[in-house]
Amino acid sequence: MKRSADLPANPPPVVGFADYYVGGFVDGFHTHERAQLSVFMAGSVTVTTHEESFVLRPGQALWLPAHTLHQATCRTDLSFQVIYVDPDFPGAGTLPCKMFDASSLIRGLMDEIIAMSFEFAMDSRMSTIAGLLIDEVERAPRLAERVLLPADPRMRRVCEAIIAKPGDCRDIDHWAREAGMARRTFTRLFQSQMGMGFAAWRRRVRVVEAASRIATGQSIAEVAFDLGYDNASSFSSMFHRTFGVSPRELRANSPMAARL
Question: What is the CATH number of the domain that holds 83?
């Protein structure tokens, strides 16, 4: 297992490596002095920041600006590549937190940087490669597969519990009590902080969770029942309304499909 702290004392403006984490590993909340670009090759991971939770699957990428407090929870064994970018490198300091699909060009540019290991001169070729990588990250369409988190600590505690067990079917009255609020207060505060109702937010948590599980090989019926749906048909309808594709289409187009 490698860490950014293992980098040499004065690394080039862009530097990276490939790594592997075992399922269940939690890299607790921390920050980096550099921006971090991660592309996930196999497995699934949940990355949580102060404001959002991302569930990433193979072929997806996440850009975190420098000094972003975040935690990574490996849902399965995880294979990934990561690039650390000096925030003073042109374009790197202005990119916001962003989840996106990693194009073949982005993966190729990362391969070139990683192949140079930690010791190389930032010549015109490497500057061009790094500059193009930043441009491609900026151009990549942002994926909407994220879950917002509330600022209120009582509600955040509830939301984190639901994200940890998205199939939990206990009703809003239970969660209002967990937050120490009356139902009406809980409902009103949730809407104001999240821009959606509690039920809609929980449905989103479930379909984002489902997408990750299906893409990494779990059966559609098993996912549906694990997440509290009475049958696979109602689950598939909800999934399609959220992502615009059916669970079967997602499974067929997943980078894992060739292995199944």
Answer: 2.60.120.280
Domain with 178 in it: what CATH number? 1.10.10.60
- Residue 81 in any domain: the answer is yes
Do 60 and 40 contact (CB within 8 A), yes or no?
Answer: yes
* Alpha carbon distance 177, 257 (integer Å): 43
> Tens of pLDDT along the chain (260 residues)?
556 556 666 788 999 999 999 989 999 999 999 999 999 998 889 999 988 889 888 899 999 999 999 999 998 899 999 999 999 999 999 999 999 999 999 999 999 999 987 766 788 999 999 999 999 999 999 887 778 899 899 999 999 999 988 888 899 999 999 999 999 999 999 999 999 999 999 988 888 888 878 877 788 888 888 888 888 888 888 888 777 778 887 766 654 433 33
Boundaries of domain holding 109 = 4-139
CA–CA distances in Å: residue 50 to residues 67, 71, 72, 116, 185:
12, 9, 12, 33, 23
Identify the domain boundary among 109, 139, 169.
139
Put simply, whether the predicted model's pTM sits higher than 0.90 gets the answer no
* Segment (H or E) for 213: helix 198-215
